[in-house]
Specification:
This protein is α+β, with helices and mostly antiparallel strands and 787 residues long. The protein contains 22 helices and 40 strands. The strands form 12 sheets. The chain has a 5-stranded mixed β-sheet with strand order 26-25-27-36-30.
Length: 787
Amino acid sequence: MNKLKKWAALLCSVIITASFLTGCGGGGGEENAPGPQPEKEEKNTAAAQEEDTEKSMGRYLEKEMTLPEEISEMVPYPIPYIRKLENGDLMLTEKTAGNYISSDDGETWKSAGNPWKEVGDKLYVTDMAVSPAGAVAMIGMLSGGAGASETGGTTELDWQYYYYDAEGNEIKLELPDISLRSFAFDNQNRLYGFAGGGKVYRIDPEAGTKKELFTADGTGDFACFTDKYVVGVTTRSAAVVYDIEQDIMLDTDEVLQSFIEENLGLSIGGTDVGHSVVLTAGEKEDIIYFAFDGGLYRHVVGGTAIEQIIDGTTSSFGDPSVMLMDMVMLPDNEFAVLYTGMKLYRYTYDPNVPTVPDEQIKIYSLLENTTIRQAVSMFQKAHQDVYIRYEIGMSGDDSVTREDAIRNLNTKLMSGEGPDVLLLDGLPQASYEEKGILADLSGIAEGMTGEAALFPNIVEACRKDGKLYALPINIQLPLIAGRPEDVERVKDLDSLAATLEEIREKNPEGSLLYVRTPEQLLYILSLSSSAAWTDEKGNIDEKALEEFLTAAKRIWQAEVSGVTEEDLGVSESGYGTLNDEYKQYYGNISGGAELVIMDMQKFAMGRVRGVDWEYDMLTTLDEQEEDFDFDVWNGQVDNGFITNTLVGISANSTDNELAVEFYRYLFGKELQDIDMLDGMTVNMVSFEGLKKNPREGLVEGADERAAGSIGSGTPDGKSFSIELLWPTEEEFERLKEIVSSVSGISTGDTVIEDTVFEVGARVLEGGTTPQEAVQEIVKKSAIYLAE
């Protein structure tokens, strides 16, 4: 997730403030924003504000607005849009519920009818737009309108376009030679269509005509209109500015373009619902506001500055569980922002609150973590008088290495200025425990009762010498899948190697595990073994590591003996490397099980992170395929679990009541009820909630266990499709039994793991022996372990 990065050097005059309006001038023609204005200061950074909070007052506060029940309780997949009308009212439009009007800036709403109900019932609506006069344009499709082709078996999609004027009169737009993705209206109520390939049209619904205006770099994803300009962003992160008065494309706004690229990457969009960035017109014809997960920003078109108005870390902008849908500017420099999940927030400036709250919590993780980000966002919204500083050691957008990040963190920890809460994954946890940096959480854990009660075996699995230094927010389970007789034989790492060798004897050709590189195999095998490579003090267990490399070499040899050279090695896309971009996909047992059924591999091992799309894949296959089974995967660690959300508290922060409160919040039902990609809940009450099928009742007439469908194919003609079924009571109890029986963390020190992947690859390829490799790993790790 992209946050504020080092883009300041790219801009000649960029001013960032932490959550208040500010003015800036200069050659670019920037003018002061309306509303409260702080005194000019030389220091304009968050750090400076923290040093002198008395001089820095004023911040936007957010408040969730109540939406009409017809919209807020709608299932499935509501798609809302919001617009400020010419008379100052707000109009909220939804594909099924229709129009709603608010005359008090979103406090109350009343229905304004649904002129497209009949069309909407048979149309899958993908986009809508609202004009200042209250007209609505919509895009949708009818599947199967042209039937299935006789040769390919594919279904053509019948795209349809409709326009409803302010009185609700319907016009079906006939646009046969273009394929529009979205609509938008300018301030003069003129309709625009954004097509694939970057083409943009102005459409006259009454006359049934269109005019091509320009072609952008990438398909338009979101656009806003001032009285003079249309400003938009495309799927290729291009910032487009078009002069609608003169009907000409303007030169690239370099400041805006650089900011978009730096903070949102090189692509935008790609989701069916929601946007990476939304924009709205400002108080003058050349001012726009735009928002993304980094917060809300103000920019003068063609100007030299971009101002941060609201900090994403202290608001819902940074909440990873929602995406932006739409945004409008209200009177008095207020904003209404519409998020997915049917959430509407109003942002109001309060000049009497500190820009940076006096009470603060510092949280640290080496890499950005979605679960932590979610927790920070939710806790922050409930405690707007608290500032949560979430520091990430390695952003991925600078030259900071893991060693640099840990060294910087250690300096802060030893000086007493470190974080209150630490996500320990990737950090030298054993060293921190030995040096007294981490607090004993036993007392805090004992207080987690009732709805905050955790699986006791997981708590005990984290205890060392009677003390509890860290707990996982969620866990993943290492599992194996394949033919029942093969699954039954695997009891440990050696029996896994023996089983795969036997499978190879019976199947001389074809992939066993569908791995491309030694590093990829070593990583997958580490999921149930790497904790065994070090003792409780963090020192390397040479015997265990030698046994691991010896077994891994046997497994690699069994794999490569039946595949061609073309099937091995890093692909052109990078698949097979251990880059984070691909690493997250390796070892997902549901994907491996799918390939087993497709006969693209013979055996699967990996992790299951949740029920939806993962454990339900295994149970569905187990129900429907006679020659398929799955079970717990014991490598060098028996009954282990995987975590990348192991969290502790600094020994210096145990008296910080807010830090302790936040730590408890991480394990409370409110956060743990959310289905997160990092793993399954460790909260016992929340875990029971996994029994319920989230898609039950969404499709009329569908089986109550219907949980979605998956289909895939390969270039050589192999295909796979399955209708997933939510686990039965018995299947859920099996999962609960596994979770209730885990007794230790199966993964270990990340730095040592990376060293093993690097050196161990040569063992698998025959370049060195396991014994020699162990000595090299010990030597390379010595400096790190000594710190």
